[in-house]
Amino acid sequence: MKRVSTVAALRRELGKLRKNGKTVGLVPTMGALHEGHLTLVRKARAKCDVVVVSVFVNPLQFGPNEDFASYPRRLARDAALLKGCGVDLLFAPTAETFYEPDHQTMIVSPKVQSMYCGQYRPGHFSGALTVVAKLFFAAQPDFAFFGKKDWQQAWLIEKMTRDLNWPIRIVKVPTVRGKDGLALSSRNEYLSEAERAGAPAIRAALVALEKSFRAGERRVALLKRNAERTIEKAGGKIQYLEIASCRTLMPLKALDEEAVVLVAAFFGKTRLIDNIELKNRR
Ligand code: PAF
Fold first, then answer.
1. 132 CB near ligand 1 (under 6 Å)
2. Contact 143/44 with Cβ under 8 angstroms?
3. What count of other Cβ atoms lies within 10 Å of the Cβ of residue 63?
4. Which CATH architecture has domain 186-274?
5. Which of 55, 93, 104, 61 is nearest to 75 (CA)?
6. Positive or negative CA dihedral for 273, 244, 175, 68?
7. Span 230-258, average pLDDT
8. Predicted confidence band of residue 280 (pLDDT cuts 50, 70, 90)
9. In angstroms, rounded to a whole number, what is the distance separating the alpha carbons of residues 21 and 170?
């Protein structure tokens, strides 16, 4: 595995690897890799001839009161894990080499970027879309891999790619979970023992909601309220819990199309997100 830290070096190395119509898969990450990330990497390895992984804690997507400074950074460990997965190229730039000192241009997706997570993290999705766009231009992948845990982010990235006619296929990979159902996240390590014990209630609430939906329950308010109660009983503080259209991501009043339940809840100071899809099966 080669490791590069500038866009010029990335393009040079990819130029050599891309010969004879070889397909390139990109897995953008912020490092502190866990099994969730490695699952994306293995999917990319299985689907593409050349696999590039980026590790970059993107300052543009953190708010002023968020955890940019304390976000875990473990590049040596990440590099060893990626090598073990058969990655061809690791792109690990610094903010100084990746961004112009007076970076100004931003990607905005005005409607959906300020809903759900975006309502509570102003600027977050614009920052994430901008760095993903930069990574797409730098690596020019055929496929890019994102986890479904960040459902809203994956939706926005897919929409950006379609809106701008970029020839990149977005592959959305199911969430990897602990045995107790908690979605893997680099932020889980912030949880105290008691908070960690309560946090699987998020998944339990979503699974119960989906079961109730499959049994025929269609009252949106009731489905939401029951899920909120389960999370609150376990010590969680709901930030939002919404049922949205998979197609438009707008909140639904009637469950007459494919939907996704999106939730963010605090356990202590740690904000966790999760989701579950609701599909009308005949
Ligand atoms: O999901 C993440 O880890 C980040 O938002 C991403 C896509 C790597 C962009 O910084």
1. yes
2. yes
3. 13
4. 2-Layer Sandwich (3.30)
5. 55
6. negative
7. 97
8. confident
9. 19
Based on the residue annotation, tell me whether 34 is a catalytic residue of this protein: no
Give me the DSSP letters along 5-73: -SHHHHHHHHHHHTTTT--EEEEEE-SS--HHHHHHHHHHHHH-SEEEEEE---GGGS-TTSSTTTS--
128 CA from centroid of ligand 1 (Å)? 6
| CA-closest residue to ligand 1 atom 8 | 29
How much of the chain exceeds pLDDT 90, in percent?
98
Q: Which atom, in ligand 1's list, is nearest to the CA of 157?
A: 7
58 lines ligand 1 (CB under 6 A): yes
Is pTM beyond 0.90? Reply is yes
pLDDT confidence of residue 281: 65
Cβ proximity of 227 and 263 under 8 Å: yes
Fold classification of 2-173 (topology level): Rossmann fold (3.40.50)
Q: Which of 33, 31, 38, 71 is nearest to 54 (CA)?
A: 31
Domain ranges in the chain? 2-173, 186-274
